Amino acid sequence: MGELELSDDWWARHDPERPAEDSFAAVLREIELELGPDHDLFGQVVRVEARFGLSDDVVVRLVDGAFALVHPTWSASVESPPWPTSTRLGDAAAACRAITDWEQWR
What we know:
alpha+beta
């Protein structure tokens, strides 16, 4: 499994200068609450890899080792698709390219 190379606008999972691990766990719990059985990512999210510092967007690793970009709603309840919004990004190389493109237009 490859690792993500992200801009400094992202807070990486194990970055000692960024939010504590428990904040990543809190985001994961929220995503798990929001993803209903009809959502494409239901049961697929393993962990949060990075958080975009200027928004609620996160990169998650999926059970197959691929990555996805997710924007939680913070409703603390199951959402109806397409919420929370998400985009499958592919492997680490594809994810890095997609995230760079995303940063350009966001």
